[in-house]
Each structure stands twice: as C-alpha cells, then as structure tokens.
Amino acid sequence: MAVTLYRKRIVLKQVELFVLDTQTEGPAIVCLHGRWGRGETWADLMRRYGDRYRVIAPDQRGHGLSGKPLARYTAEEMAKDVVELLDALGIETCMLVGHSMGAQNAAHVAAMYPTRVSSLALLDKTPAGPSVRIDTPPEQLPAVDPLTANWPLPFSDRAAARDFMRRELDSELAYEYFMNSLIETPDGYRMMFSAQAMAANIAYNIDWYARLGEIACPTLLIRAQDGDNMPDDVWEKAKQQLPDCMAREMPGPDHNVHLSDPERFYGFLDEFLKIER
Q: Which of 9, 104, 206, 253 is most buried, by the most CB atoms less than 10 A from its CB?
C-alpha cells in the first residue's frame, strides 16, 4: 500500500504546530525529532509503518514550520505540546518514538502523562545534565544558538550552504539533517529553527534520570555504540532506571541511529512491536 504523508497545521494553546500525518488506520505512533531537526526526518519510517499504524511527526515548537514563541523550551513544556496535539487529533494513547531532544521530550510525556503513552522508543539521548535549572527569564537569555552562531548566515545561495555544511558537519547524515532545515528568504538561505529556541533548550536543560524511573510502559532504548551521547556509564545507568526496558545498540558512532542503518534499526523496532518480518 502506498502511504501518503498529509501536511497540516494544528493550533494548540500556546503554539501552532506543523504536522505530517499518514491519516491511516491503526494504532498511533508519534515521532519526535531532535534539536535543529524537523518531522520530515521520519518520512521513511512513516511510509514503512503507515500501512499498519497511523504515524504522525510534528515539527516541534521552535523548529521547521511550527511556531517559535519566546519560551524556555523545556522538556516539560514540549511534552505538554505533545499531549495537546494528541487531544487535537482525537488520539487517546500512542507509541512515542523520540530521537535525541525528541527522546527527552518523549520520556517526559510518558512519565508525566502515563495514560497517553502505550510504549516508548528512546534513541541516543543522555539523561545526564545540570542538577539545577537556571532561573534567568527567557527574554534575558542571549538568543544565540551555540552550534550555528559562527556560521556565515544567511548563505548567499544554496550551493554556498551546501559547501559550508559539508565541511562543517561530521557525517553525510548530519549534512542531510541540517540541509533539511534550510530555507530561502529574501536575504539568502537561513535555518528554519529559532536561535532563541535552540539557546533556551540547551540553557534550561537539567538532569532527567529520575524521569526514567517514572516510566511504566515498555521502552525500547537504543544508542550508537561508539557515539558520544551515551557512553557506557550513562548507558548502564539509563537501562537500570527504566522499569521495563529492551536495550539495543547500533554499531558505529552516528548519532542518527534511526537513519545510519535503517534495516537494522527497523529490525529492532519490529522486534519491540512484535512485527513478523
């Protein structure tokens, strides 16, 4: 069955989200991208599972075509967006799949709103962080994304953006990930994510190991075995904190574990969902 990705805007209480939705029959899977990303990173997964599931992938607040309000962009704030999105779509419960920042947000949804999440997949995100959250108001926080602050934005043309990002980024997947957030404006090519959102999401981050212990639903935990995000000590601690955990590892260092080896990743997801291949 050919799966179409429908595009829509959903107005929530504090923000408008741009959403991709297969609008197919079956249990719902909601996919949350990482920082600097977009819902479109899940397009292949949406097509693969859209014949059996309704698969939904929003641009989270501050990213892509979604709203970019002045805010703290905490996991708690972004988790509330997910629940409001489920309400707007008439979905009672779903499986949540989150990568990096999206994994942190997904974990918070499962911990804070347990009746809304039937199962969970957390992809390559450390729960480690500062023990105390800063109390600086967001309007006083410099709106500077530390990753792209020194990029020569706006790029004069797409080729200039392509050449720069190929030099700057450490893998082909990272290059594709950021090119997907590139947009043409009257003064050149810029990134679609909000610098204030990126700065705030990083600045207000705190340790969330305790949230893992609050997650009751079955959880698939995946890391890049040779990556920087979940070294062995973090990996072992995260596994121990989760009450119902299936842990799997992707070979190599690539943080984009859902894209680095799709067949291996989908094999893990099928195993978790108990889908016969």
A: 104
Q: Is the pLDDT assigned to residue 178 strictly greater than 90?
A: yes
Residues contacting 163, CB < 8 A, separation 6+: none
Question: What band does 250 get if pLDDT is binned at 50, 70 and 90?
Answer: very high
Mean pLDDT for the chain? 97
Question: Pairing mode, if any, of strands 182-185 and 188-191?
Answer: antiparallel
* Cβ–Cβ < 8 Å for 56, 6: no
pLDDT at 1 over 80: no
The Cα 51–Cα 21 span in angstroms is: 12
Cβ-based neighbours of 235, under 8 Å, separated by 6 or more: 223, 247
Q: Are 238 and 127 in contact (CB under 8 A)?
A: yes
The string of DSSP letters for the chain reads -----EEEEEE-SS-EEEEEE---SSSEEEEE--TT--GGGGHHHHHHHTTTSEEEEEPPTTSTTS---SS---HHHHHHHHHHHHHHHT-S-EEEEEETHHHHHHHHHHHH-GGGEEEEEEES------SS-----GGGS----TTTTTS-PSBSSHHHHHHHHHHHSSSHHHHHHHHTTEEEETTEEEESS-HHHHHHHHHT----HHHHHT--S-EEEEEETT-SSS-HHHHHHHHHH-SSEEEEEESSS-S-HHHHSHHHHHHHHHHHHT---
Which token pair is 41? 């990173």
Q: How far apart are the first and last CA of the chain?
A: 16
At 87-129, the pLDDT tens digits run 999 999 999 999 999 999 999 999 999 999 999 999 999 999 9
